[in-house]
Amino acid sequence: MKRYRNRHARIIATLGPASSDQATIRALFDAGADVFRLNMSHGDHADHRARHAAIRAVEAEVGRPIGILADLQGPKLRIGRFAQGSVEVRPGHRIRLDMDETPGDESRICLPHPEIFAAMEPGTELLLDDGRVKLVIDETDGAVAVARVIEGRRLSDRKGVNVPNAILPLAAMTPKDLRDLEFALEIGVDWIALSFVQRPEDVTELKGIVRGRAGVLAKIEKPSAVERIDGILAAADAIMVARGDLGVELPLETVPGIQKRLTTKARAAGKPVVVATQMLESMVSAPVPTRAEVSDVATAVYDGADAVMLSAESAAGGFPLEAVATMARIAMQAEHDIVYDALIHARDEAAGETIADAISAAARHVAETVRASCIASFTASGATALRIARERPDTDILVLTPNLDTARRLTLAWGLNCVVTPDVANFAEMVQSAGANAIEHEFARPGDRIVITAGVPFGTSGATNILRVAIAPEPGQRTV
Questions:
Q1: Catalytic site residue 26?
Q2: Is 78 a catalytic residue?
Q3: Given the residues 219, 243, 267, 409, the one annotated as active site
Q4: In this structure, which of 44, 144, 158, 321 has its CB flanked by the most CB atoms within 10 Å?
């Protein structure tokens, strides 16, 4: 059996109370998890430090790089409290909104967020309790508003607020996020996920703080982010289709189309794209998923998403191992389906105009033409490997890098199997290293063809300009 995965789509598993000890993390990895998510909305720094150490211990055990993603909480907009703990909000009624923190009642709700009042105007929609209560603003003076109830139900203390059709004058990172970010960078995570992205500048701000110490993943969960996706994609290193919040702030029926558009755009840009939220939600409390959930995961794989993510299923559910194993089986079955190749290449984009783009595109076609066992890509920064992944080749991709940080970061990307190996100094070392690693890690057998990409001068980041076909050596022979 290969030491590496027999599938291209990657799995992100969130850690939590159900999955924090080293033995469980190892079992999750063996079941198919490639990247582990630390959700900064839950747990304290001591909890996350212990989980990080456990992941790194598992990494040392298995001898393969494992990615770690720290997910920042972002601003949390919530209503205040009610005198009786909850009220009945009835459709057709008018209700007052203000910032007075006195407990509210049936005629008044405390909304302690001046940023929301600053963005309000007649016609602005407010969604409370994940969209279960819908209000439309009729009047506002910037400090007090009168709203009409469109959809109502019983509403309890501190429920969340969404403002779907407005850009709020609110930074994507709170003081808590900045503390969490400093901690995450200090322990050495590989990816930072940014919540509450409204504009490209939110991503640029975070990248200025991170300064290349981790990849920056923008969570697309607001309509304004969907509208500005091209700029956000240009600024970010990866994106996540956060369908939970998208489904609150946008009509539910629009979310599948948005998911497909964002996946297509990210693939065209050569940036990893993660599909997340409620993928196997029923497995929080059941050992098997619904048929609809199986189809949902498979659809993301057919669309060519780089990764699919488990949240509560692996963090707090009763069946975390089963959830990861089920997701892995669904992805493998989809990738072996007779229609997979046609679907995965249905929206292929033309390669970019750089030499590295041309080499990466050619590597796929040459590998398929000569029936190579693998494409071996030498990379320092990971940029060339991502270009090859963008092509979605049928051939396995073996990434050879001298940088452990690069190898860990690339665990998020489609089909990249990373090995940390010393850099090469000349053509002979390049070919020998590619052949030896391909055989050692079971991507080729002696006599198989291997397609190699690298750059001259050797050891120079971003200089990919070589494509070579070599033959994997017999024992005691050199690669040719």
A1: no
A2: yes
A3: 219
A4: 321
Long-range contacts of the stretch 322-325 (C-beta < 8 A, 24+): 322/283, 322/287, 322/288, 323/280, 323/283, 323/289, 324/11, 324/13, 324/28, 324/31, 324/32, 324/33, 325/31, 325/32
This prediction has a pTM of 0.94
Task: Supply the range of the domain harboring residue 243.
Answer: 10-74+172-342
1 assigned to some structural domain = no
User: Where does a domain end: 162, 193, 211?
Assistant: 162
114 shares its domain with 262: no
115 and 16 in a common domain: no
What is residue 248's three-state secondary structure?
helix
Residue 242 Cα distances to 71, 231, 389, angstroms: 12, 18, 22
The catalytic position among 277, 379, 401, 453 is 277
* Residue 207 in domain: yes
**pLDDT tens track for 85-144:** 999 999 999 999 999 999 999 999 999 999 999 999 999 999 999 999 999 999 999 999
Number of domains in the chain: 3
